[in-house]
Amino acid sequence: MLKWLGAEGDQLRIAFTKVFGSRYESFGSPSLQAGGLSDGKKGVQWHVGYDPRDGVRFAGVNLEGMQYDGWPVARLIERELKAPTLVELVQREKNLDDVILQWRRDYWQKQARPEIVERHISPTPLLLGELTADSWFEALTGASACLDSKRRRRGRATQTVTLLSGEQVTGEVSPHLMFSLTSAEDGAWEEFFRKVRTRLQPLHEWAFRRSTDPVSF
Q: What is the CA angle 76-43-210, rounded to 5?
């Protein structure tokens, strides 16, 4: 599981089950030097993690670019390109300004996803307080390009990317949406998770509505 994170990994796991439920899946590895847990749901997820290099904890909302029940991430992208709603949500919910928005480009090498230089989809990462209609459109357009245009964006695209070693490779990529909060403090894991869940609940509900089929607009 997360034994390589030591005592922090155990505390993270126990707190996760108290706040997000008993079902979880792990991610990360010693080679990546960071890891954590998600609730493992097929679509929008809660995820938490820890980076032992700097002691930073993070938790938030996660939507991977995976098939699930017909590519939820593609539905969210399409709907937001057609009728964007995120900027309005952020303006309405004043407690979201310091939440980090990230669209990531995941490069697939069989079942692994090695880190690549182009992992960030521009102009993210950025704080939601800095999000504008134009920057959201730019991020959505970049995320859409990571899906296969020949299959109505219901599949991974093929792109040339750069591994951290400098080697350029061509392979499958997919977009990955994350909203997160971080903390470098030594407080209790459970307290941190509860605060994050309360603050990010509107984003979790928004992502679920925009990615689920059928959906009520």
A: 25
